[in-house]
Amino acid sequence: MAEMKRIKVGTASCGIAAGAKAVLDGLRAKAGSVPVDEVGCMGHCYTEPMVEVELNDGSSVFYAGVNGSDKDIDGILSLSDNKRFTFPEKRSKLEKLLVTRLAGRINPVSMDEYKANGGFSALAKATSMSPEEVVNEVLASGLRGRGGAGFPTGRKWSFLAAKKEADKVLICNADEGDPGAFMDRSMMESVPYQVLEGMLIGAYATGATRLFIYCRAEYPLAIKHLNIAIAEMKKAGLNLLPGRTTPLEITIKEGAGAFVCGEETAMIHSLEGKRGTPRFRPPFPTDSGWNGLPTAINNVETYANIPVIFQIGAAEYSSIGTEKSKGTKIFALAGDVKTPGLVEVPMGITLGEIVYDIGGAEPGTVKAVQTGGPSGGCIPASEFGVKIDYDSLGALGAIMGSGGLIVIGNNRCMVETARYFLNFTRSESCGKCTFCRVGTTRMYEALERITTGKGSMADIEFLEDIAPKIKKGALCGLGQTAPNPALSTLRYFRNEYLAHVQDHVCEALACPALVDVAIDPSKCIQCKLCVKTCPVGAIDPVNNFSVDNSKCTKCNSCIEVCPKKAVSRVRKQSAK
Amino acid sequence: MNEAFSYLSEMEAEKGNLIKGLQLIQTREGYVSDDAIRAVAAYFGTPEAEVEGVLTFYAQFKRVKPGKYKISVCDGTACHIKGATQIRAWVQAELGIGDGQTTEDGLFSLQTVACLGCCSLAPVMSINGTVYGKLDRKSLSRILNEYKAKG
Ligand SMILES: Cc1cc2nc3c(=O)[nH]c(=O)nc-3n(C[C@H](O)[C@H](O)[C@H](O)COP(=O)(O)O)c2cc1C
Ligand code: FES
């Protein structure tokens, strides 16, 4: 049998949460002279913790779903068949690992390892060209911003490059505000040098002198890895670009929990130490941004794409994808799928391929997909043939967004989903403009009425009337897109709205006000577990285990603890 | 300046660092007290009202002392559709506190957050930064009991 060269354990946030540290410790204690290294995330989050054993013959063996027990550790060290992992064939065929090629395969904080795998070759190539040529190469690649709006990166860079000021600012938007998305976290944790290399190339191309990374505070590991990487790059002198006399200033700033700070002008205010309220544009940040200096902002994944473009060339890069959306897109696949995780697919693949073939969802069990988070929309299963690109998703009333892709199963309520998003945008609205501040609140209230069985047709009409007004009148992208989750569900799942309003029925049995909890006496063994767990004493063991639904908070505790599955949600008795 | 916050001098007294200063205080103290606001205002040369204005804008900052164990229940989209509402209800039932509150013994405080970045393990919560995924009624009780036992 081939000798073991090195062992790698995935210890990105998702791996750690699944117990990777115990695996790491267990392996280190027993591996003897074989080095055990930490790596990032390979995207197969559903089967963490993951271990890769590199063999001397250049091949690798993978293990998945392991824990720190002696059995698993010894199994790995003896290369046993137990818990061996083979990459799912369907997924491997559909994926194209370009930007995430090194994620989970190298030690994230080792500059040497990044270099040994082609790291910084793109920077060398770019800086052998003129800044103008670099901008043109990015333009030719067709790369569009991965933060959501899809603005051509080369064009944004050309605006900044055209500015004559001596001091210019380039910002990396690492706020990852879409609640339910983790592409940017994973990239920063797994390949921080790649993101930073993209920023250096951007600085070279645009003449930027000062770089900021605005990272959400919930990502301590990403911040740690970026800090190490920046220090290493400084040591290696990479922060002094060819032809410059002063080194770049690179600063990481932690966000403080405000969704609106993902918006460019709000982010700039926040970086200046102020309240993160957006302002009217123009002037655009490239004309007047951070402290009045010309400023451009790009997303983490956008920067991570840049080294790839220079490694394979703009011509090859632009051969991937569709006519107007080039390259690959990373999606954070989560929700009602068997195998959630991070996937990188070429633009132009269908939504169905992602949900069914990569995510492993059974056809017929899924009713929709939500993309773009609070700014996006829900796409019904009947439209899963759609090709993933900026324009096709937009035509369906959704958006590409930054890559959050939540699969919604049949047992979820679409009205409640819309209510959830409007509750989010209403509380995240900064309050500066009336359309957003009052508009999102009124929409939320209407949705709240509908989901609690107090809604009427007038509420549906109200939603449809006010939504376009908010989209038109709001000051920034937050308000301009906030009605989308409601509009798209009204478009595709109108029957659910009508059932709530006219019949007081939530088909999915998700809306607490429209369901009762009932115990099936034929299944009940009177074990009283439900009685003990109920926090409000709603179950009466004396009176035939009946549930007092006026007390019950629908917290599902009894449903979860019942060993016989005798407790369930049912349609409310009073429903029509 | 109030001696208790002298560590602020770790950073430059430049306005762009105001949020960072508040974050430093919250990391050290667990929350931002009235005294801390005064200290930050003095250090950065900004009116107290402005410091408070900035502070109240950002959800991260706490104005009251949190419990020893800070529980963050994720209600991001992935966790929401996987039952975050129930997870929160169960924590509330087991600890007898509402969202944003602290138990009387000062042991636990509860807050709802939007996405901890581990959506593939939804539903998720974190306690003092340690993330627990794929929660159900049983595992939640077990985890809370472990912390209760530790005290
Ligand atoms: C309310 C709001 C939140 C946003 N949040 C993010 C975010 O978390 N991450 C991001 O990259 N872009 C976000 N954006 C988009 C950015 O404002 C900006 O368009 C993007 O960072 C530009 O980078 P790109 O061209 O590389 O996509 C948000 C926009 C709005 C209006
Ligand atoms: S939605 Fe809960 S971790 Fe992302």
Please tag this protein with its features.
heterodimer; A: 576 residues; alpha/beta; Glutaredoxin; Rossmann fold; Ubiquitin-like (UB roll); 4-stranded mixed β-sheet; 24 helices; 15% strand; B: alpha+beta; 2 domains; 6 helices; binds FE2/S2 (inorganic) cluster
Would you mind describing this structure in some detail?
The complex is a heterodimer of chains A (576) and B (151). Chain A has 24 helices and 17 strands. With 576 residues, chain A is an alpha/beta fold. Chain A folds into 5 domains: 4-87, Glutaredoxin (3-Layer(aba) Sandwich), CATH 3.40.30; 111-315, NADH-ubiquinone oxidoreductase 51kDa subunit (Rossmann fold, 3-Layer(aba) Sandwich); 328-409, Ubiquitin-like (UB roll), CATH 3.10.20.600; 414-502, NADH-ubiquinone oxidoreductase 51kDa subunit, iron-sulphur binding domain (de novo design (two linked rop proteins)); 514-571, Alpha-Beta Plaits, CATH 3.30.70.20. A 5-stranded mixed β-sheet of chain A has the order 10-9-13-11-12. A 4-stranded mixed β-sheet of chain A has the order 2-1-3-4, with helices on one face. The radius of gyration of chain A is 26 Å and the shape is globular. The model of chain A has no long low-confidence stretch (mean pLDDT 96). Chain B has 151 residues and is of the alpha+beta class. Chain B has 2 domains: 3-57; 69-150, 3-Layer(aba) Sandwich (Glutaredoxin). Helix content of chain B is 42%, strand content 12%. Chain B has 6 helices and 4 strands; from the N terminus they run αααβααβββα. Chain B has helices at 18-29, 34-44, 48-57, 77-81, 84-95, 137-150, and strands spanning 69-74, 108-113, 125-127, 130-132. A 4-stranded mixed β-sheet of chain B has the order 2-1-3-4, with helices on one face. Chains A and B meet through α1, β9, β13, α17 and α24 of A and α1, α3, α4 and α5 of B. The site of flavin mononucleotide has 23 residues of chain A, from β8 and α20.
